[in-house]
């Protein structure tokens, strides 16, 4: 069914395969924004909004954890199996708990990059799933 076309009144139509690719691209862009969008000048250290917002006590980590959970939710909507979702959730939980510790948590956020890890898990599953589909 990857070439099925859907139509919505007033919104035209779209190809389901293109829509899936677009969703994955948006998730990848969000993961990049959260984890590796910026470079610390004079170094090779990359960080994102997760590290920046984590500097705001309390609310910063709550906001970035919610954004990370959105990536996991979308992965589930894309059909990722339970074991992939469980690993993604473990990454987010670890990032949220350790990230809440002042200073040490912010350094951990920059180094752990839970969202990039989760995108790698999702993309590995998608690649494996596409390869398995070719044999069906």
Summarize the structure.
The chain is 68% helix and 9% strand. It has 136 residues and is mostly helical.
Q: What is the typical, i.e. mean, pLDDT?
A: 88
Radius of gyration: 17 Å
Report the sheet with the most strands, covering strand number, pairing sense and barrel closure.
2 strands, antiparallel
| SS summary, helix count | 6
Low-pLDDT residue spans: 1-10
Through-space gap between termini: 14 Å
Task: List the main descriptive attributes of the protein structure presented here.
136 residues, mainly alpha, two-stranded antiparallel sheet, 4 strands
Describe this structure in words.
68% of the residues lie in helices and 9% in strands. With 136 residues, it is mainly alpha-helical. The strands form two sheets. A two-stranded antiparallel ribbon has the order 1-2. Strands 3-4 form a two-stranded antiparallel ribbon. Strand 1 and strand 2 form a beta hairpin. Helix 1 (16-35) packs antiparallel against helix 6 (114-134), helix 3 (59-77) runs parallel beside helix 6 and helix 4 packs antiparallel against helix 6 (114-134).
